[in-house]
Q: What sequence folds into this?
């Protein structure tokens, strides 16, 4: 499977459809007070970089990097199209985000995801890639339906 990852805009019809599926997935699995996904319109801002993964002309997934500070970034809106799951799409998007974070010389990446079974594949992906659970950061709060992760980036991860 030849996967291509490109910069994306939330207004692109295929990207928008995946973001809508992401919002529906989060809404179906999480109570209202535990939903932290960004509406598509909030992903087209200067502090957020959005990518889409493609197989040919078909979208396979999306993911975003939000600048929290000059040293830290947050992973947002990671979602793989249902038919493309378990094919490395999420790992490829995560790798792209980590590469960009290293290029920006971020010291760490942060993220929040759900604790419900529907989010188990996401948690497993992040843990496989070296993310560890951490206390809530930023505007997040202690919530039994939510878990935060972080990963310290090293110079070795910077692109050459």
A:
């Amino acid at each position: 499977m030849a996967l291509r990852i490109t910069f994306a805009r939330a207004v692109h019809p295929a990207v928008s459809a995946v973001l809508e599926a992401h919002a529906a997935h989060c809404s179906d699995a999480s109570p209202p007070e535990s939903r932290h996904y960004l509406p598509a319109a909030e992903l087209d801002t200067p502090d957020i970089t959005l990518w889409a993964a493609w197989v040919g002309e078909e979208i396979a997934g999306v993911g975003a990097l939000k600048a929290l500070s000059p040293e830290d970034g947050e992973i947002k809106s990671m979602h793989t199209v249902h038919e493309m799951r378990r094919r490395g799409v999420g790992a490829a998007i995560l790798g792209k985000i980590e590469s960009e974070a290293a290029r920006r010389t971020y010291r760490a990446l942060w993220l929040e995801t759900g604790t419900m079974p529907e989010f188990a594949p996401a948690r497993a992906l992040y843990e496989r890639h070296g993310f560890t659970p951490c206390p809530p950061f930023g505007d997040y709060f202690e919530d039994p339906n939510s878990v935060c992760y972080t990963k310290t980036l090293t110079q070795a991860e910077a692109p050459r």
About this structure: The first strand starts at residue 3 and ends at 7.
